[in-house]
């Protein structure tokens, strides 16, 4: 399958899943539960990095189809432009882990300080605070893992296409 077609199919499925998330109210639930909003930072990074991957895929596809001169192909640093995508795919995982730690800190800091353990209303408030912290931890981890994995799939596909492009050129040298 051609690299651009493979990338477009992947993005189309991602867009369909995004609309399904919106339709079922999952984004608004995450907005309410993730107190750090790091899940949305991860999604924004995923969106822009996917666009970057698409533009790089277009360049590689044009070169594979012969729409770029061989001289330009030899003088282009194909791998260098892809490194940012690999970096961001790991970075969104890191942001997810920071969200996990932040969520646990939100859950545990001050949750039981000065609370009368026999008071049911006070205990209910403590459990509510703890659940928001746990939600933050789990949502940021989930979005970090999913978006990081999806970016790695895109850049792996792009890397394979780049190997097809660079391989014959390196053999001619």
Overall pLDDT? 88
N- and C-termini, Cα separation: 27 Å
Structural class call reads mainly alpha
Report the biggest beta sheet as strand number plus sense, adding barrel if it closes: none
* Oligomeric grouping of the chains: single chain
Radius of gyration: 22 Å
Name the shape in a single word: elongated
State the helical fraction: over 70%
Distinct helical segment count: 6
Q: What sequence of helices (H) and strands (E) makes up the elements?
A: HHHHHH
List keywords for this structure.
elongated, about 170 residues, about 85% helix, 6 helices, mainly alpha
Written overview of the protein:
With 173 residues, the chain is mainly alpha-helical. The protein has six helices and no strands. Helix 1 runs antiparallel to helix 3, helix 1 packs antiparallel against helix 6 and helix 5 runs antiparallel to helix 6. The longest helix has 53 residues. The relative contact order is 0.17. The model has no long low-confidence stretch (mean pLDDT 88).
Task: Itemize the secondary structure elements and their pairings.
Layout lengths: L2 H21 L2 H8 L4 H27 L5 H5 L3 H31 L11 H53 L1
Helix pairs in contact: 1-3, 1-6, 3-5, 3-6, 5-6
Brief account:
With 173 residues, the protein is mainly alpha-helical.
